[in-house]
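Hi P.,

Sorry for the delay on this. The queue was packed all week, but I finally got your sequence through. Input first:
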Amino acid sequence: MAVTVYIPTPFRRATGNRDRVEVAARDVGGALDELERAHASLKGLVRDEQGAVHRHVALYVNGEAVESLGTPLADGDEIAIIPALAGGGAGEAGGPARVSGLRVPGVDVIVSEAELAAIHGQAVEEYPFEACGVILTRDGERRLLRCRNAQNELHGRDPQRYPRDARTAYYIDPKDLLRIGELERQGFAVGVIYHSHVDAGAYFSETDRRQALVGGQPAYPGATYVVTSVVEGRVQATAAFRWDEARRDFVAVEP
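Then the structure:
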């Protein structure tokens, strides 16, 4: 069966920046086998050494989530590989919250005043849970995509695998990740990934850092991560962070 595999932005460095790869396979596991044979650098990104799909990766066939690698495929099907956008901050040590500038020096606006107001409003509305979303850009056009935090559902279904609930972590709903992927297909790029910290500072936590890396490299190297601190239901501070290749770390954007 000839099927198409959608490759998300964080994994495209392994496919020569191709966003779609055609393979011949009868089921999802076979498609991943063929994909990894054709692009060896994908090994370890989608599945672990035992062949199980990483917990931060979701698989879809024709827009429907699938759990089994044995899911059969038909000619012309499309598989989408969707890595998680996730993180969390409360309970971890971090630097003092700082109010960030809304621009990267010498670069474009990070977040407009209207976008910042929307982010703050969402963070307050969703308190005491972490809020999350992205801003996508295309040739000067900007779209703020408010996303749903699915962490409570994951925690309720499997508390051992997901020990935190949405008060201290976020996991963008896979349906929203599919929407992001569709906009990327239309030429949009993820410019900002934002979330809130509940009753904690606006810092880039170790969890945020770990979830922002894929194979030791930033999943979205051109994106700015915006973190808003909400304490007792009120916004206290907002800070922005970007990947610094020289330091091999995410560093605060100075005003």
